[in-house]
Amino acid sequence: ARYLLRETDQTTQRIAEIIGYGHSGHFGVQFKRLHGLTPHAWRTAQPVGHERKNL
After folding, report:
1. Could you tell me which residues come within 8 angstroms of residue 40 by beta carbon, excluding any fewer than 6 positions away?
2. Boundaries of every domain in the chain
3. In 3D, which of 37, 40, 29, 32 has the Cα closest to residue 4?
4. What pairs with residue 53 in β-bridges?
5. Which of 12, 29, 36, 41 is the most buried (most CB within 10 A)?
6. pLDDT per position in the chain (55 positions), as tens?
7. H helices within 1-55, ranges in order?
8. The domain at 2-45 falls in which architecture?
9. DSSP designation for 21
10. What are residue 5's phi and psi, to 5 degrees?
11. How far apart are CA 49 and CA 15, in angstroms?
């Protein structure tokens, strides 16, 4: 999930689907539990300079 958030422009909903979550809300809760930030906040906090790819 972190790779997809950092390296692609996929939505968090789409990333949740790709990695097997049926509901993006559950993915967000689990991601925050593990990483201390929501997927959106984590993506925003990443250093500038990564060119995101549309997979």
Report:
1. 12
2. 2-45
3. 40
4. 8
5. 12
6. 999 999 999 999 999 999 999 888 999 999 999 999 999 999 999 987 655 555 5
7. 2-7, 12-18, 24-35, 39-45
8. Orthogonal Bundle (1.10)
9. -
10. -65, -40
11. 21
